[in-house]
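agent: user wants the full assembly modeled, not chains individually. Plan: 1) parse entity lines 2) check alphabet per entity 3) run joint structure prediction 4) return tokens. Steps 1-2 passed, four entities, 620 residues total. Proceeding.
--- entities ---
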Amino acid sequence: MSKTTASDALRGSGRVSAETKARVLAAAAALGYVPNGSARHLRRASTGTIGLHVPEVLTRSVYYMAFVFGVVQGAADNDYDVTLITSGRRTPRVDGLVLGDPMADDPLVARLMSAGLPTVTCERFPGAGQADGVVLSQHAETVGALMDHLSASGASRPALIVAGDASDWAAAVHGGFRDWCARHGMEPQVRTVPFDAPADEVRRAARELLALRPEIDALVCGPAGAAAGIGPLLREEGRTPGRDLLLASCVDSQAMQLADPPITSIDLRPREAGVRCAELLFDLLAGRARPGAERVHPIELIVRDSTRRA
Amino acid sequence: MSKTTASDALRGSGRVSAETKARVLAAAAALGYVPNGSARHLRRASTGTIGLHVPEVLTRSVYYMAFVFGVVQGAADNDYDVTLITSGRRTPRVDGLVLGDPMADDPLVARLMSAGLPTVTCERFPGAGQADGVVLSQHAETVGALMDHLSASGASRPALIVAGDASDWAAAVHGGFRDWCARHGMEPQVRTVPFDAPADEVRRAARELLALRPEIDALVCGPAGAAAGIGPLLREEGRTPGRDLLLASCVDSQAMQLADPPITSIDLRPREAGVRCAELLFDLLAGRARPGAERVHPIELIVRDSTRRA
DNA sequence: CTGTGGTGCCGGAACGTTCCGGCATGTCGG
DNA sequence: CCGACATGCCGGAACGTTCCGGCACCACAG
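--- prediction returned ---
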């Protein structure tokens, strides 16, 4: 019984008789044999691991956490591990990278994008160069659908609070809003805040916007979770969210469901997005997809009382 | 120039003259040499990686996301990678494990706890056996402090909504509440919900509790984020949170800050907790800590308007 | 009987690093 | 001048796996 035969039997490669194979498997099980990953990876010149980076923005944490779990699931399905990459560390030894919402001004993202590794981004990279694979959603179109809905509910002076254009997602939301307004002959009111703006900053932005333009009758919030803080603000100012001012969020979360009234928002299906990113990366690694591949990940508008004007 | 000399120079081990060392470093930098992790780990019989598991509960996502980033930071400081472990995968090849809030009834946690790897848990494992290291916080005591504060604000009929005792944290909150009530001669009103209860379930629990016991004048919420959904509920029922019913949460988050009124809560400092878990694990791996070590991680009560009865 | 091809198994080399022991050379005290 | 010891460098083995080529055997056609 040579190591070669054992190896072949365990991996199902080479030429091994059924009987020998059964004996090897039985022995391996009895001895509790576990192949040594380092040795295997050394020999195969692969690491069995992919790297994952997401912006370290706690205000979007529900979204990113679900995304991370999705990537891990997709990797596990392909017998791969996932290691998290945060700033500081030297470029890690991985076979490929998944970058969630890569931001143009993130130096770590820039380094990872130019590391020469097969890379998939969730949303396009707004900086120089493009990843080998991109999973993207139709944010602009869905914001358009949201606007159609707000318009149907009677809004004619919509405003948007959105993160600056450092992320592709924010840019798409921004662009979708402006396009829709242009197509419908409405003047777009837009206020930008930092990507990681804490909610009270968003709240302050909303207050200023409404003071400046009291005629606004619908407010769309980009930053996740922030819309939840706006209802109370509106009431303070004597407005009734859902009646004289429609309120919507571009990122669904439990907070939107729980707000008073519950807030219409866009469900980005982050977990599925993560799975799709991993799948695309493995398709690239296996040659099943060509560099430059783009895949669309569906998202969904969820209408709630905050825009029903019931 | 032999490989041995190069290796010694790069790692600072062995006997190498300063001049040779400088030449080696220069050459390595010029060639862009990166040591091969698989080969190194094969030789050293270590993986350079620790595994991290957290309950896959999106309602606590802000907490766990911060915790995860903390662990990654602590690992990076020790030149280690972190791979995420979720169900399904065979026991991964790692040098140690960090388990966040291990639950007694999680089969994956049971498997990991008995994998024979150096293990650190954040909070004790409520099942059989104990990890080699535990990072824990004084939840019961802090809940006591919260109760002192509620009592000082005039509450005399407190109630608690908390997850069942599957997690050590929930058990500590529960126990701390009951102890305080016993010490102060008050009847403890407790309602338990599942650990991963969605917020509307918590809301329903609160509604039933208040219908059953209208005399309740202070409500403490265990599940993260859930308290935010309770304010609107109270208003619906004609109560005013912060005045005729004090409201507090055992887990701080942005939602607590943003709620109307802002909700008094306990800041669990999850990121620091993650860093401490990683540190303890590396101390164990390096023999700087003995198996059985326990370290206390400080948490903090944050008082806001929901309990000020201003 | 010979050549051809398939099957089952195996030995040895290779992946890139680290570690052990050893060989020169130099220094210094006796 | 000789032994003892330190310094600088190196060769070879080892970690556990996978892969390439080869050997022995058998079946079968010509």
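agent: reporting back. Residues 1-5, 8, 14-17, 20, 39, 41-45 of chain B lie near DNA strand D (CB under 10 Å from a C1'). The longest helix of chain B spans residues 61-77.
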